Amino acid sequence: MKKILVLALILSLFANFRIMAVDLAPSAKAAAIIDCQDGRILYEKNGDKRLPMASTTKIVTAITAIENGKLSDVVTVSANAAKTEGSSVYLVMGEKLTLEDLLYALLLESGNDASVAIAEHISGSTQNFAVLMNQTAKKAGATNSNFTNPSGLDDKNHYTTAKDLAIITAYALKNKEFSNIVSTQRKTIPCQYTSWDRQLDNHNKLLKMYSGADGVKTGYTRRSGRCLVSSATRNNWKIAAVTLSDPDDWNDHIKMMDYAFSNAIDKKIVNKEDRLGQIQVLESKSNSVAFHAAEDYCIKCLPDEAEFSTEIVVPGNLQAPVKKNDEVGVLQISNKGKIIKTIKLLASQSAELLDYKQKYWDGFKLILAALLNLAR
To answer: Are residues 140 and 82 in the same domain?
Structure first.
């Protein structure tokens, strides 16, 4: 009877754990958490559901502009940019600002006018810039998104998914300039036609509310509802959380990130001291060499995360000579069918080229010894 009760308790705890994992963002239509280092999706809710994302679009706008322009570029604000509807930093036609200043206006104050000025500077028009945005998203790894404008204003053909937006965010956060901007709480930029400067305040309240928070972007339209992308780093581990159409987004993001940080465990996938196999070496004295990984690989993961798999990719054989620590192949580490890390494989010892003169002399000596034995 006691065994049955204990088993029931264990099953109950496991069930509660799974429910907790599923209900991290109960208010959101869709949500995701991503490891920003290797792009693993740690949690998702309706992760592939296509939804509007409002001004979180500007994450794509910003990284596209950074990769295709220079922060020191001087941008002249057009009439079209100055009259853009929605959130604004009140740019004036003919005003000149650097691309860097406009990126701060874009990401801190969510200026739609800044997004158009940036798009026109990079590509000549918002339509051409949208093409570039989609190319950037695909390069980041997004597969289920489409962008038609740089601001996030409603358009039935402008959509993403929680998973895609998480993937794009992890990609963008690897860029130093992008990371510096989204982690800034307040910035002053010029206002050319007045005697005062513009004071920009980051709309992301988590920068003040959550320990380790370092980005990234808010968003809202009536059609999309409240959208939020946040990131935080603790113990050198950076994660990002995404919610789409979430009326309780601040609390949900705190809950999501707390869950990830509190439940993460360190798991060693590869030990560089371990010999992982051998490769035949043609025309060598030793005939083969062992190989090992070039580095240790330890990963933070959640207890209920899918298992990791490894695949050794080496040629069928090598040609002598081989020196110790020569690269002989790679080790691919995958999670959920996606390669998240590739590590070099190195020769654990040298394999010298066979000395053919010595080989023939040794053969001759063997034949001679055999003949002598026969003669006796």
So the answer is: yes
